[in-house]
Structure formats: C-alpha cells, structure tokens
Specification:
Mean pLDDT: 85
Pfam families: CoA_binding_2 (PF13380)
Low-confidence stretches: 29-46
Strand order of the largest sheet: 4-1-7-8-9
Organism: Knufia fluminis
Helix content: 25-40%
CATH superfamily: NAD(P)-binding Rossmann-like Domain
Protein name: CoA-binding domain-containing protein
Largest sheet: 5 strands, parallel
Length: 175
C-alpha cells in the first residue's frame, strides 16, 4: 500500500469527491483536525480538500450540490462528477463520501478513465476497497502496511510523507 500511496501523488491533478462546506457532511473537517495533521496555517474550519490547496497541489472539489467551495484565500468551482473533470485519467481522486456514495462514484470514475483513487477512512466498506484494487491501476485505502494513522490510510495523516516519497516538494500556502 505504501507504493500505491506514493504513486497516487505522482498524479498531475487531484480531485476530492465529496468536498463540502457543510459541517454535517463527511467531507468537512475542522481546523483542529487539519492543524493536528501538519497544516497549522488554517484560520477557519474548512473542507478536507483544503489539504490539497494548502500543499499547493492542483485540486478540484467534486460536489454535485454546490457550484463552488470557498476557502479564505480562494474559491474553487466544483465539478459535478469525475466524468466532468478536464482530464480524468490524469487525476487522482480522493473519496470523502459515505460508502454507498463512494460505491457509485467509484463506478463512474472507472467509466471516466480515472486511474488512481484514495479511499479515506470511513468512505468505504471492504468490498469497495477490493473493487477499487481490482478495477483501478492504483488504489489506496485500508490498514495495509505503511500508514501512520490509527484509522487507516488518510491523506491528512499520511499525505506529507507520501508527497515526499513521490518526489514532490511539499510547498505550503495559506488557506
């Protein structure tokens, strides 16, 4: 899984399925969670996709219910689905949705030609992770070797190390 996590971060672009500003949604995490995991320049609670922004990575939020997601320093237009991304095969998808939503979004991502996915803790059931491993060139998730987090492979916990392992310079910017 460590190799898969490293490969994930070689993607030229990223998208976060389920990015949200709704505090009741899974795709929302507090500034405390982000601060705890290395992004200490946050000043408000924000969606998990802010990790990608804070690390200067090209990211698109995917949320069919919102036209955009706002961070303090930038507002991002959302894509309604992985098939509406400019270049799905070059985009690594991170999933922050409930398992039934993830399951449907994984099938759509496969049809769109996405090659690399990262299933965040809580976003999948074991059958979803198995399906992702069987249907994508690269899939990250679960508890296989390498994760430093207690909940499984998580971009917020494992991302910095994986970025470095992928040869990407970690460049932080304010949210």
């Amino acid at each position: 899984m460590e190799a898969a996590a490293r490969r994930f971060f070689t993607s030229p672009q990223f998208a976060v399925v389920g990015a949200s500003q709704d505090k009741s949604k899974f795709g929302y995490k507090s500034k405390t969670h982000l601060r705890h995991n290395g992004s200490d320049d946050t000043d408000t609670g924000t969606a998990v996709f802010a990790w990608y922004h804070a690390h200067s990575l090209p990211v698109t939020p995917i949320n069919p219910s919102r036209p955009n997601i706002a961070l303090p320093s930038k507002t991002y237009n959302t894509a309604s689905s992985s098939s509406s991304l400019p270049d799905p095969p070059s985009t690594g998808l991170s999933f922050l949705t409930a398992p039934p939503v993830t399951r449907k979004a994984l099938q759509e991502a496969k049809s769109a030609g996405v090659k690399s996915v990262w299933l965040q803790p809580g976003s999948f059931e074991e059958r979803d992770l198995k399906w992702a491993k069987d249907n994508f060139e690269n899939a990250v998730g679960g508890f296989e070797e390498g994760t430093v987090g207690g909940e499984g492979w998580c971009v917020l916990v494992d991302g910095d190390g994986c970025l470095r392992a992928a040869g990407r310079e970690v460049q932080r910017q304010k949210l």
